[in-house]
Amino acid sequence: MALIVTVSVTVLIFGFIRFVRPSLGLPFRDTFAAGKSNLWQPLGGAWELADGTMQNHSDERGAKLLAGSTSWKDYVLDADLEILRDGGDAGLIVRSNREDRGVDAYDGYYVGLRSGDDSLVIGRANYGWLEGQPVPIPGGVHSRIWYHLKVVVLGCEIGVAANEVGTPNRAWGMFEETDCIRSGRIGLRSLATAASWRNVEVSSSDVQAELEAIRRHAIGVIHPDFPKSEAAYNSTHTFPTFDPQEAKFTPKEAAVEDRSPQPINSLVSLQEPEAHPVSVRGVVTLTSPQLYVQDATGGVAVEDAQISTLGIGDEVEITGWPEARPFSAFLHKAKVRLLLGRTPAPPLAITAAQAATGTFDAVFVETQGYLQDKHYESNNTVTLDLDDGSQSFRAIVKGGPSEALYRRFSEHSLLRVRGICVLDKRFTQNEVPFALLLRSADDIDVLVGPPWWSARRFVELACVLLLLLLMVLFLYIRIENWRLRGILDERERLAIEMHDTLAQSFAGVGYQLQGIRNGIRNGGPAAWPAINKQLDRACEMVRQTHEEASLSIAMLRSGSPEFGDLALAFEQSAARIMQGGTVKVSVTSEGPVQELPLRVTDTLFHIGTEAITNAIRHAQTESIEIHLIYGANAAVLRVQDHGVGFLPGGQVRGHGLKGMQQRAASISAHMRIESAPGKGTFIEVAVPLQSRTMLSELVRYCSRYVMRITPKVGDAVRGNDSRSSPG
Amino acid sequence: MFFPVVQFGMRCAMCGLGAAALLLTAGCSRSHSRTVAVIPETTAQELWEAEHAGVVSAAMGTRWEVLWNGPSRKDDVARQIELVENAIENRDGGVILAPDHALALNTLVRRAVARGIPTVVVGSPLSIPPNPKLAYILNDDEAGGILAADRAGETLHGRGSVGLIGSDQGTAGTALRAAALEHRLSVRYPGVQVIHDLPDSRTYGQSLQSAQQMLERHPGLDLIIAVDIEATRSTFAALKGQHSSRRVKLIACDQDLDFLYYLRRGEIDSIVAENTFEMGYRAMNLVKAGQSGESISGKVMLSPVLVTRENVDHPEVQRMLSMDWRPTR
User: B233 and A340 in contact by Cβ < 8 A?
Assistant: First the structure.
């Protein structure tokens, strides 16, 4: 039942998710043109929506932006892409799983355009990289040119068609892997270059036809087995030679006077405007909303520079006119010379108080603070108000891949943010001492979620507690009702018992006394013999009633020897009933004697006593055998005599059989009577008992488990001790 | 009236907590995972791809899965720390780490060892002594410096001037190389003059500037020894920029694919290559031994190899530069 409920709930939840997130199904189309990208997840890089395209401004190796579902199997992925700077490669990921930050940190396939050897690359990533033989692209792979990629995945085959948009330059490739990945997400990826993507579409229709169309053009099928050696790689690949004739990768000389670069922090000490431009060398830390460059001594903001070809992480030489500001400098009318495409520099970890001093103005830093508020601006900018206890500051992200990502940052969460520290009034509005200009949403990490003791949580907790209290009250009242009902039932039973025994006996004694009184008043001396008989009978009845009452009380009192010991009670009862007669009574028991419920004990005692009485007074037997069986799930009483017997179903008076049956029925016992004239009487009463097996088995299981794991715990403790001990 | 109910509830809670604690404690025994986290100094240098190939070569045919991931730049220590933390958290069956920093990773490595994860440090050492769960397979930087010095001395026939680029990078390995190199030149080739680069040449731009100034100030320079990959790349660009690559010879330390390409073109004289393939191969075997309960304590120094145009295609050298990594399962 529980399984059915669980499965049903799961199905409903998944159904609901599919209903509210229809874009996880196919077909899929990006919404970059509308300025939205809520379903994309970045892993590294500096992603920004700009001009209807998704751009990565970082030169990070293996920056990824992922979307879709890991259940997507066979599909056609179409996209346009543009490499923003020579060098590196950019492309698309298909059938991706287990992604992490890192160059090949995913399990899937990559299809890309590589400018280093002007080729189309198809390969398998599995926290490692294996590629097929690269396919040359006619006309080469150049920066600032749009290419269209069509990737078809079907079974274990991948077909790729690449073409330079607006030209006849086309290339096709077929890739096949034997033990392939069958499903996975899609993604955008760049390696050591900045790049743009647009018109990303995924469709599951006409997959076979699209693959066949590519197969017709592709030359052979490549496999993920290349390269295996340096010699093989360098026999087909080329690298920038920096020769003058190879203009593509030769660092471009800026059309400025060749000046010796100086440390960036030296610009702050300039007392008056320089008469000549100055040069600095450093790494690009941010390109939007402004270009920032830093070296080991500090950072500088650069204005009026041509930055369209720069990516975060590029090493550059900048020549411009410096202007000293209170904490850092600006370079105006700057000209930029690219030295080397690199991976972004790691941030400098500082406190908010240190950032507020201005020492780290224009430097790429990392700090943390509690989120106080967040604002979504109309110009696609997100501002987070943060406070670390000593300083309030802002984190500003322009663009970003997904507005939805910011929604997961709850107020009062502890966030770690990385960005360019600026004290510029344009960003601080003089409301906070500094602001951080973040490169992307990937620069925000949630260190600790919001505290649980928020007002909302308190209300939720109060509601839950109230609910629990009501449940406990309800249970308590129910239990009290059950207990009261039990007491009333017992009282009723005792009342009936008293009516059947004591009241009847007193009534009999009353009749005898009434007869004696009448005899004394009316009979005279002639009636004395009869009166004597009546007196003897009355005395006998009082004695019997007293003994019965005493025995019943003894059975019910926990302090008496008979309490809980039916065998002893039967022996004493039989002796009393026989009054020294010659009938042999034997009482035996089988199984471990256990404490039966009081009501059961009392009922069995009365049934047994009635049976003994019947056997002695009416059956003319010479022996009675009483046998008790204590089982795990039942208690059984058997009384056997060897007397005259009777005919079951016949007219039997005064044997109390009906009363015995009623008593048995009151405790849900099964009663069996076997008798025949001259063959004695056999009575059996079987009382079902509540099973204690489950509880005892559970205890046994737990004790066994504890015994089993205790040595392991000991080993673990000893192991930790030995490892932590010196030497 | 609530007392019995509360008491019962507390008993249940205590039993639950006790059971949970017992289960957790029982689960703290050593990991039986067959995943090894291979964390290079950076994934941006093919030097460490050969280590990856070595690990894969040793893991081939076993049930071990190799997870190779590292920082995308050499000085991103924070990312290395994060990756080691992930390996510990995931209770991986082993860690093979080429540390970016001699001190910053000590705590994490101690933690991995304390969790019973066999850990092998390759390339550069940490300050933790070897123990049954921790081993070192290191590059012999002093031997590398001597190899470069001998090559320079022989190339110049004992007379000339040698520029040293990248010696002030602040890392132990490069400092050892530079010291051994200078000592060897002064002892065995006293006719060779050593010219030092500018101080604080840590980035490509600074290294490039240093090399450019050295070439301008010493027009008669015969040979440059670049003590690491950054220095080699910037020196090569400076030589090409000043059209001096044929006149001034370049000896590189540590290999990258483009350096081997330039070596084959005759634009780099030779490369003192670290045997990272062997490091990875031996490290993986140690992880397997450690996982089966054996002690892996020890420290091995692997000598680098001088790669020239003459021996680059030798099978032993090609094995050392292997790029043959493939899924092991």
Answer: yes
What residues in A contact B26, CB-CB < 8 Å? Answer: 709, 712-713, 716
Quote the CA–CA distance of A96 and B308 in Å, as a whole number: 41
Contact B25 A713 (CB under 8 A): yes
**Which residues of A are less than 8 Å from B204 in CB distance?**
315, 339-340, 342
Q: What dihedral do alpha carbons A516, A522, A523, A525 form, nearest 10°?
A: 90
Residue A496: CB atoms within 10 A of its CB come to 14
pLDDT tens across A95-116, in order?
999 999 999 999 999 999 998 8
**pLDDT tier, A687 (very low <50, low <70, confident <90, very high otherwise):** very high
Closest CA to A362 of A446, A280, A459, A476: A280
Helix (H) or strand (E) holding A171: strand A170-176
Size of interface A-B (CB pairs under 8 A): 166
The single-letter code of the amino acid at A446 is V
Residues A115-160 have pLDDT tens digits of 888 899 999 998 888 888 889 999 999 989 999 999 999 999 999 9
Give the long-range contacts of residues A119-125, CB within 8 A, separation 24 or more. Answer: A120/A160, A120/A162, A120/A171, A120/A173, A121/A89, A121/A91, A122/A158, A122/A160, A122/A173, A122/A175, A122/A222, A123/A175, A123/A224, A124/A177, A124/A181, A124/A224, A124/B327, A125/A93
Q: List Cα–Cα distances, A398 to A57, A381, A384, B182, in angstroms.
A: 12, 4, 12, 51
Per-position b or e across A242-280, b if 16+ CB within 10 A of its CB: beeeeeebbbeebeeeeeebeebbebbeeeeeeeebbbb
Task: Answer whether the bond into residue A138 is a cis peptide, omega within 30°.
Answer: no
CA–CA separation, A666 vs A689, rounded Å?
14
Residues with Cβ < 8 Å from B250, sequence gap 6 or more?
B223, B224, B225, B226, B232, B235, B236, B239, B267, B268, B269
Q: Which of 289-318 (B) contact A at CB < 8 A?
A: 312-313, 318
Q: Which residues pair with A436 in a beta bridge?
A: A395, A421
- B residues 264-293 near A, CB within 8 Å? 264-265, 267
Whether B69 contacts B297, CB under 8 Å = no
What percent of chain A has a predicted confidence (pLDDT) above 70?
83
CA-based nearest distance B259→chain A, Å: 9
- Residues 6 or more apart in contact with residue B222 via CB below 8 angstroms: B156, B160, B161, B162, B248, B249
Helix (H, G, I), strand (E, B) or coil at A292: strand
Q: How far is CA A618 from CA A574, A622, A679, in A?
A: 14, 12, 14
DSSP calls for B286-308: HHHHHHTT----EEEEEPPEEEE
Residue A624: how many other CB atoms lie within 10 Å: 27
Q: Is A336 on the interface with B (CB under 8 A)?
A: no
Chain B hits for A241, Cβ within 8 Å: 240, 262, 265, 267
